[in-house]
């Protein structure tokens, strides 16, 4: 194959999910989920509470084990019996932002950001400090570096959590309802931060109920219900012409909420 032909081939997916199944006892939480995400793509996952969205995102990062199927995340293949080494390889390449901020209360903002890259050997302390300062400036918190989490608002804490995840130089960012624990006035500042990341080409999968954000940022919208992926479409197709009845019902309820 010529170099020109090789360059024209699409890049392999950064995330590939195949026939993923997860049970909690008798409860079938994920049912044959298939999804592929390309480098630089922004995917929003939506659906009603209990539809399996957060379970899916936690399986991608190895926080939750799954029972059947296969994941390929940033070049590492995970099966139901993934080893510690395989999970560690994935977590070093994947950034995760949770519903709750999960910051260490006894560490300053700067220390929260530098802990993981230093402890894993990714960066030397001076390098980690420089990168953390750069990323805190990026999320408009450069002046808060010496403060502790309790001294910050909820929106500020979530932006610190985003900067902390970016300090590991992830290939893929996962967001699990990043605004659900915030007061309404703080939601915009966090969404603006994620929108800026999307504009920089960061590959992301975001579970959210913020449909305005999905319209603005997503390349594709994934709609889940009862553990299944029922629809994958562009934002225009999903919001203007949803194909599945459950998707139409979900959107109608949002409009009348």
* Percentage of residues assigned to helices: 25-40%
Count of individual helical segments: 10
What is the strand content?
A: 15-25%
Q: Profile the largest sheet.
A: 6 strands, mixed
Structure write-up:
The protein is α/β, with parallel strands linked by helices and 257 residues long. Helix content is 40%, strand content 24%. It contains ten helices and ten strands. It has helices at 3-8, 53-60, 84-93, 109-119, 125-138, 154-166, 184-199, 211-217, 235-240, 245-255; strands at residues 15-24, 27-37, 42-47, 68-73, 76-78, 94-97, 172-176, 204-207, 220-225, 228-233. It has a six-stranded mixed beta sheet, with helices on both faces. The chain has a four-stranded antiparallel beta sheet with strand order 2-1-4-5, covered by helices on one side. α7 links the parallel β7 and β8 (204-207). The model has no long low-confidence stretch (mean pLDDT 92).
Please outline the helices and strands.
Layout: H1 3-8, E1 15-24, E2 27-37, E3 42-47, H2 53-60, E4 68-73, E5 76-78, H3 84-93, E6 94-97, H4 109-119, H5 125-138, H6 154-166, E7 172-176, H7 184-199, E8 204-207, H8 211-217, E9 220-225, E10 228-233, H9 235-240, H10 245-255
Parallel strand pairs: 3-8, 3-9, 6-7, 7-8
Antiparallel strand pairs: 1-2, 1-4, 4-5, 9-10
Helix pairs in contact: 4-5, 4-6, 5-6, 6-7
What features would you highlight for this structure?
257 residues, alpha/beta, six-stranded mixed beta sheet, four-stranded antiparallel beta sheet, 10 helices, 24% strand
Task: Quickly describe the structure.
This protein is of the alpha/beta class and 257 residues long. Helices cover 40% and strands 24% of the residues. It is globular, with a radius of gyration of 19 Å.
């Amino acid at each position: 194959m010529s170099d020109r032909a090789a360059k024209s081939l699409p890049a392999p997916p950064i995330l590939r999910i195949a026939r993923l199944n997860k049970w909690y006892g008798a409860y079938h939480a994920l049912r044959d989920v298939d999804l592929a995400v390309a480098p630089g793509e922004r995917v929003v996952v939506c659906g009603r509470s209990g539809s399996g969205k957060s379970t899916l995102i936690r399986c991608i990062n190895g926080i939750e084990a799954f029972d059947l199927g296969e994941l390929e995340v940033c070049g590492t293949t995970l099966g139901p019996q993934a080893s510690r080494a395989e999970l560690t390889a994935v977590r070093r390449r994947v950034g995760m932002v949770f519903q709750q901020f999960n910051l260490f209360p006894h560490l300053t903002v700067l220390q929260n950001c530098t802990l993981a890259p230093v402890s894993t050997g990714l960066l030397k302390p001076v390098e980690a400090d420089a990168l953390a300062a750069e990323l805190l400036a990026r999320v408009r918190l450069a002046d808060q570096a010496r403060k502790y989490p309790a001294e910050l608002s909820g929106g500020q804490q979530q932006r610190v959590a985003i900067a902390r995840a970016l300090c590991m130089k992830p290939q893929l960012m996962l967001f699990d309802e990043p605004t659900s624990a915030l007061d309404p006035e703080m939601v915009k500042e966090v969404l603006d931060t994620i929108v800026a990341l999307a504009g920089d080409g960061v590959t992301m999968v975001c579970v959210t109920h913020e449909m305005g954000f999905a319209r603005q940022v997503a390349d594709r919208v994934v709609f889940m219900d009862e553990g299944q992926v029922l629809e994958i479409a562009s934002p225009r197709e999903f919001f203007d012409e949803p194909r599945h009845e459950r998707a139409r019902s979900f959107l109608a309820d949002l409009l009348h909420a």
